[in-house]
Write a structure and sequence with these properties.
The complex is a heterodimer. Chain A is an alpha/beta fold. Chain A has two domains: 134 residues, Thiolase/Chalcone synthase (Peroxisomal Thiolase, Chain A, domain 1, 3-Layer(aba) Sandwich), CATH 3.40.47.10; 214 residues, Peroxisomal Thiolase, Chain A, domain 1 (3-Layer(aba) Sandwich), CATH 3.40.47.10. Chain A is built from 13 helices and nine strands. Chain B is mainly beta. Classes of the chains: A alpha/beta, B mainly beta. Chains A and B meet through helix 4 of A and strand 4, strand 6 and strand 8 of B.
Amino acid sequence: MPKVGIAAYGITKFSRDDMKIESVLLKSTKKLFDNSPNLSRNDIDAVLVSTNNNSKYLSAILAEMSGIEPRIAHSIESLCNSGTNAIVSGYSYIASGLADIVLVSGAERYDSPGQILEWDNSRGEFKHPIFWASIFTKAYKREFSITDEDLALVPVKNHKQAQNNPNALSEKTYSLEDVINSKKLTDELRLLDCSRPCTGGASILLASENTCKKFTDNPVWITGIGQKTTSAGFTKNMTFSSMESTQIAASNAFKMSKHSVNDIDVAEVHDAFSVCEPMALESLGFADKGKGMSMVKELYTTNNSKINPRGGLIGAGHPLGATGIAQTIEIMKQLQSCANKRQVDNAKMGLIHNMSAAATSSTVLVLEK
Amino acid sequence: MNFESELKKGNFIIGECIHCKKIIWPPSEFCNQCFKEVSWRKGSYDGMIIEFSKHNNDYFCLIEIENTIKIMCNVSSGIPDIGKHVKIEKCGIKDDGYYFEIAVK
């Protein structure tokens, strides 16, 4: 398989701003061009837009607004893992030879329609994500004797790590008491257990091996890809205390990269809610079943930010279509040793875990220097 | 007859593929294994609680019916617990979506 690398990136600050989706897309694309003096508009073969926004024809609009006339232009939507799925599409265009350089741009507004999957009528009147997250949390707590206080450490850690991320939505740290005393949404969830939908954009430039070097001396390669969709409906999950799609996607990504979880130095995992971080750590293989929170505790007490260094979704905010791309940019920066205050020592290999709709679908990427 | 027209009347019916001997859920006209048309029959109104939580003062439950269909339900009476038996008391369509209300036995 030909090598595909990440040659450049652009990202906006995540906020609750009321901006047009086209402006959010353009902002991160402009930043990508600002960061890439050697990039000409004519170089770009494909423009892929990742979003859940209802506006139409956004890839063509972004292309026009950026002065690009690509051969390939279309949008990609798959709820919360749209971003990494768009990256996989871009990878595939390059690996197949249909394109040499692909711009992947993700954007979302704070009021994204992607938060609710109307089709999933098995959820009855409980279509908001807090309800599947409550079922996951209750099942996880019951199976592994975990308490709300244990889980509260996830937002404490991720908001703390987000303070070193200038693009994060979170602007303060919280104590365990703050999390426990934050607004109760259900018996299992407090407000601070949740990632917040927000406005944000993130773009990356993918390129073939030879072309990549034209834009950067420090390319990062996508060496592992794993995707799995087990269903669309939340209640079709076989278990509510682990993520089956994540486990399968991770296994495929590691197989492709010819590495194992032990080789991963830094990872962004999809902590949409507190419980998702330990569940993801277990399903990805970082921790044994039921031991995800022990790992989170150890990371927190030793000031080790190898998991979610930019603050994860809880700390950084969750602009759905941009999230997977922002996660990928973070791992790219970590591997390039340019993550500033949140740099993880000696990071050579990283992982991105991006999932959607109660883990019914997961995408896992492995990146290497 | 189809699932939604019956649900609108407050009836819970189940689609089954007679060739694959399989319940098809979520409701669909065709079997997801052989694509033959499903047959409809009266569904069981009895289920079992798999998981539950509480929103404000109201419980909500994830229940399983006929060992296959898992749905989220409002609770009209009783205190839920894992493994407890429930009965669908009411079901229908509200705001373009399904709703199910159960009594805990």
